[in-house]
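Data availability (excerpt). The following record was deposited with the supplementary files.
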Amino acid sequence: MGLLEELTKDTGMIPESITSLSVVEMENRVKEIKNQLGKKLFIPGHHYQKDEVIQFADAVGDSLQLAQISAQNKEAEHIVFCGVHFMAETADILTDDNQVVILPDMRAGCSMADMADIYQTENAWDKLMELFGDSIIPLTYVNSTAAIKSFVGKNGGATVTSSNAHKMVKWALGEKERILFLPDQHLGRNTAADLGIPLNEMAIWDPIRNELVFDGDIQKIKVILWKGHCSVHENFTVENVKQVRNEHPDMKIIVHPECRREVVEKSDLNGSTKFIIETIENAPSGSSWAIGTEMNLVKRLIQQHPDKKIISLNPYMCPCLTMNRIDLPHLLWSLENIVNGKVENIIKVNDEVSTNAIFALERMLERV
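Predicted structure:
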């Protein structure tokens, strides 16, 4: 079954025994089941999740961090991953065979990860080999499917995070003459530009048209950027930056490197989710910030730091629709299924894909 089919398949209706409960009743039942299962249950929650599920998370963090913590938690038999599909895949890849990874809602996906499927990637690789020969090494953002991680691992490449992208791009360019960066063009462009690679040495691979987009001598290309993006971060604009500068001249702007290059250039700071959180935590009381990242996290930072003025860089930004699929009823439904011995929405990556994906992850972890 393909990823799209898996994400859209009917995974069963949440029963009325759950939907008829009040919020307080659902919360109390989640607490009961957590106490009942004890260390056999582990609930990781991504930073971008709703507060209604984050309140029950045993660990909160970025996707790879949560997968690693899950793998270290050997007592956990059931890992109920409050995130999206690719995150649960990574958790399954890293955890032991006796541990079951569950995604409470199979519709919880990542539009960016879905912009690079394995068939498009293999076709692109064949064409790029014809153009450039064995001079390319692939890198993929961890925000990608297990199949893409596996492809990268099989072809000598590595994964990257937004925290270590600079180190990994430098490493890759020491291995080969040029890189293919999947699936987020903005993180790839921002990272390469920060390392001194001019924009006129970066090309775009368009997976829909199945062609390289570049105006000039292709032999000068150092970085090939997959034409993918985060639908949330791409919506922060230069106009948003100008508006903040005009209305709040003393406010600092901090954005995620998944934002467009021109937005990153005009901001004061840019960095990973972890960097953004730590910057706000360490900022002096009374400081003011406009943050360009997912709205659930921005709202949480506002609540956690009442001594600071914090706004979203785009005041009309909506939370990520697919990231927000997991809610309290789905979390409770997953836990009830575990208790009843009818586990639903198990995420399982086959052995061949897992093996090559681990190669990609290990190449990164060895260098950071």
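Summary of structural features: The domain at 113-230 is CATH 3.40.50.10800 (Rossmann fold).
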